[in-house]
Task: structure prediction
Amino acid sequence: MPLSKEIPIIETEENYLESDSDHETKDLESEIEEAVLDEAEPNSQKNKVGKNKNNQAKENSNKSLASKISWYPGHIKAAEDELKKKWLPLLDLVIELVDARIPQSGKYPHWPHLCKSKPIITVLTKADLVSPKDFSERADSKQILLIDSRKPHLWRNKLIKQIKDESTKVFDRLSVQGRKRNLRVGVCGLPNVGKSTFLNSFLGIGKKAKTGNKPGVTKHMQWITGKHGFDLLDTPGLMAYSVEMETSIKLGICGLLPEKLFDQSLLVQTLITILQEKYKYKLPVEYAEFADPEIGFVNERKVNLFINQFREGKLGKFCLD
Result:
């Protein structure tokens, strides 16, 4: 019997989050308490300083923000709870999509715990925005699959083979049981990493999975039956409850966290620092004022243009990790 009949598409309501769940553990409560303390301390200090120091305190607060950032909308928590309790037990394998510009910072940290013994295939998306040289010398370079979702003919067959190779135990078990069905593959990753675009490209079916260029477009699970013997579960982007500031800024630079969480000038300053330290990057003439952090980021239009040009690959091909 085909999987699409066995497992219907979920129509989860956005307010599903409001119920309690096992996810809110003591560790989570501890993280919340730490975040509150981190924010309370600078506020307390700010009240004590004199009027002539207020601007400096505000500047320091803006730069450091907090030790962690938390962006955890309802549909993400609902998706994580539902995936863990209802769908992960049914999956044979998980494909984790990671933005190639941040191959470490862009990983969801809880996958090893959630998936346990299930195989995980890591696929680096947006290969057109990075240089292969950044990955050729890595110890795991042969296991890395860099993809440009616009060019599936370059990687589709390789990924199909990798999925089947990782699923031999599943095939053996089904054979012993005298059963035959499609492989159940979950496609997961952080928000805006390109899951739906990947699915549409991999399956060659046009726009069946909803896509967008901002985090949080996919809010519900949906099963898509492919022609390669796979049933793929498109999932909403998952995000840890709190993320270290250094990682958060990289996610913000690459558009995997909403822009409203950051001062855009902070993102640009951090991006320039990383590019200069790692690639000896020289600022284009039109952004020469950025060399002076005191006055260089007053022009909001230029700040936004710079970050958008990075995201589109117009400044060059870079890996931030």
About this structure: The radius of gyration is 22 Å. Confidence is low (pLDDT under 50) at residues 1-65, 211-218.
